[in-house]
Amino acid sequence: MKTSDLQLLARAEVRDLASYNAGLSSEAVRKRFGLTRIAKLGSNENPLGPAPAVAAAMAQACSEIALYPDASCQTLRAALSAKLGVPAEHLVFGNGSEDLLSIISRVFLDHDDQVVTVVPSFGLHFIYPLAAGAQVIGVPMTAAGEFDVPAMIAALTPRTRLLMFSSPSNPVGTTLGAEGLQQLLDALPAHCLMVFDEAYYEYAQFEAGYPDCLSLIQASGRPFILLRTFSKAYSLAGLRIGYGIVSDPLLADLIDRLRTPFNVNRVAQAAAVAALADEAHLHATLEHVAGERQRMAAALQAMDIHCVPSMANFLFFSTPFNAEAINQALLRQGVILKPWREAGYTDYLRVSVGSASDNDLFLEALANALATQQTRSA
Ligand SMILES: *Cc1c(COP(=O)(O)O)cnc(C)c1O
Fold it and tell me: CA-to-CA distance for 38 and 25, rounded, in angstroms?
């Protein structure tokens, strides 16, 4: 069969999708450019790695991998329920929170339903709803990178089934304040589910002005799913485990109908329990990231680079040049970032806060890249 015929085997929604921009691996960059030293700062990973107790918990779980995992994650469920003060039956678990985004789109969206999100966006907030046949309305953030609450409210219609966005925003790093969140909750149409993606919650939770989003959303009485993950601050990205807090156990039941029964593996469940228990390690991560983030932002500013204030473990910045050109120049120096591709943001890149030495390598490589581009355009 010809490629064009093979394309026709897929559903129309799938044919029209762009591929997910997952970025390059360290190994790929090392090979392509013959480099030894790589700074992988494209996927918001935690340079400190997981809590020390995680390794032992994983080893124990590995001795039992002949057995299916607990389909309902009872041990982790109990631990999270106690920590969050949320009833156990209000929790759902996914093979990463990405898994939950996919399930949510398939459970709640029908053809021609509408989803409101923001731009620039986390790609999957577009991809999964589009794949389900829904229409996605992306509301641009303001010029300062803040949530444009009046524009988001204006985009809501009786056909809006999901209001779905991340705060802290990935990729921008800014957060929705209490007042804006309340305004959105008050404006939600009937039959609209709030999907609040709080993947970077741990990084933001102690920052001045960051609201207790869970409490505010709970108090609204509106139907919601609030998503969190063990991939970011807990440093378990390679294991794939995330969770959601739902307003009503019925929502958990609906999600259960479409998730694969054993979607969270045994090793990930054990690791998450161990990671959750080590608050000191989490605080060490938060302290490291806050300090390095401030140092990087100051260094970018000193280079005359515009960078949006961030409460997460990354910075979103623009240069006078095309992001893809800067990205290529950085890759040649062993630095992996995420150049932005959405229309209107193609001069922006996102850099994760890494180890101090990786961040130094990034700053040095960026200075070189900018100097080269300036010479070229002079
Ligand atoms: C990283 C990220 C996720 C995905 O997390 P996983 O649990 O690793 O699937 C979800 N939402 C946002 C906004 C993210 O940045």
Answer: 10
